[in-house]
Amino acid sequence: MRAKAAILATSTGLALTLAGCSSGGGGGSAVAPPASAPGVASASPGASSGAAEWPMYHGTPDHAGVSTTMPAASGAPRRIQNLKLDGAVYASPLVVNGLTIVATENDSVYAFDGSYAQVWKRSLGTPSPAEERQCGNINPLGITGTPIYEASTGKVYVVAEHGGAVRHELYALDPATGEVAWSKSVDLPGVSARDMQQRGALAVTGGKVWIPYGAQAGDCGDYKGRVVGVPLDGGDGVVYYSPPTKRGGGIWNPAGPTVTADGHLLAVSANGAGFPGDNYDHTNTVLELDSSAKLVDSFAPSDWAENNQGDVGLGSQGVALIGTKWAVLGGKSGPVYVLRQGDLGGIGGQVDVQDICLVFGGSAVSGDTVFLPCTDGVRAVRVDDAGKLHVVWHADDSITGSPVIGGGRVWVLDTSGGVLHGLDPATGKSLGEVEVGDANRFSTPALKGTDVIVGTLTGVAVVRTS
């Protein structure tokens, strides 16, 4: 009874601190919290956008996925818009200077005003149809990686795949008009452009926009994981890093590279060509890169080679930052790792590892808690002062999307059912849900004022939360 009372007191105290949290709903299976339970904390110091803006994947360079300006959610969420566009939306929408900017797999970019009336549409070319490629699961393949807005240049950067002679082009757009300021090929020698896929979100640091590449679903053809850095003005000085493997090591997860407080990139390579008995080739690895694309640190599980052989291990989740001390990530085979920022630990150098769940997509972070997009239901996992992991709750197994946080809710999709849920951050229980339509398995919302903006396979759904 004393333990139960302590848990109740912790949850009750938390509920008083969460704007907009209320009882009701069902769906989550609460696990007894440890010393503290997750709340809705302020965005990290990495946030550089204006109030109520969402200029990149999960809002800030560290991809915490937190809106500190979203009003407290109240009542049942309701869908207020269902915008039909010219292609599927895999990338996260952006919010820039009051405009919602959306990219499609038809190589188009749209902007909508505050009432979601179309302001402009820019066609960047013709996407690549499935018959041009040996494998893959997106047809046609156009703009997949989430674009990024950079305030210092006033431009939105987006990479489009074009068909015919399959190629990838980086565009700098004026967010107010959609006009193309410049474009630049970002296919570098040494691989087949048609076998490379640009699925990960773009990042900006060190005066460059960073573009991660992996493979098509199926890992076919001549590809190699790569992160390419292009000067923000599109000029000379392009740099890149690829793992020193014969083939593979795709840097493909949709969250893309995470930017640390010191401006370094944390990218995650997936399975490569190094098998048991081979030399370490920096695949199945967290890679820390500086602004010249130089590798400065890394981490790999001690069974990296076995993971390569089984196409499991890392690669499917971006790195989550807990303050400036810890980094957390899972992958395709169950273990979730805690690493030390600034000293990733090399091979087998994790601070903690626990077999928690398979993780695919981008996480959200509030305080000392990371919300993981597990394939059998989102989990809230706390990292204590010693770097140890504690599972706080486990949501329903159908709620598997990449979560974001705002208005006292964790907003996350049941992508198989096309339903957006607002979860209680303290318990994981659904406090409201609304149908938004079919979405890809990695779909993650953007937050704007009282609205949750969701990319779907037919366009965009907008859900109002209060």
TrEMBL record:
<feature type="signal peptide">
    <location>
        <begin position="1"/>
        <end position="24"/>
    </location>
</feature>
<keyword id="KW-0732">Signal</keyword>
<dbReference type="InterPro" id="IPR015943">
    <property type="entry name" value="WD40/YVTN_repeat-like_dom_sf"/>
</dbReference>
<feature type="domain" description="Pyrrolo-quinoline quinone repeat">
    <location>
        <begin position="152"/>
        <end position="272"/>
    </location>
</feature>
<dbReference type="InterPro" id="IPR002372">
    <property type="entry name" value="PQQ_rpt_dom"/>
</dbReference>
<dbReference type="Pfam" id="PF13360">
    <property type="entry name" value="PQQ_2"/>
</dbReference>
<feature type="region of interest" description="Disordered">
    <location>
        <begin position="27"/>
        <end position="48"/>
    </location>
</feature>
<dbReference type="InterPro" id="IPR018391">
    <property type="entry name" value="PQQ_b-propeller_rpt"/>
</dbReference>
<dbReference type="InterPro" id="IPR011047">
    <property type="entry name" value="Quinoprotein_ADH-like_sf"/>
</dbReference>
<protein>
    <submittedName>
        <fullName>PQQ-binding-like beta-propeller repeat protein</fullName>
    </submittedName>
</protein>
<feature type="compositionally biased region" description="Low complexity">
    <location>
        <begin position="30"/>
        <end position="48"/>
    </location>
</feature>
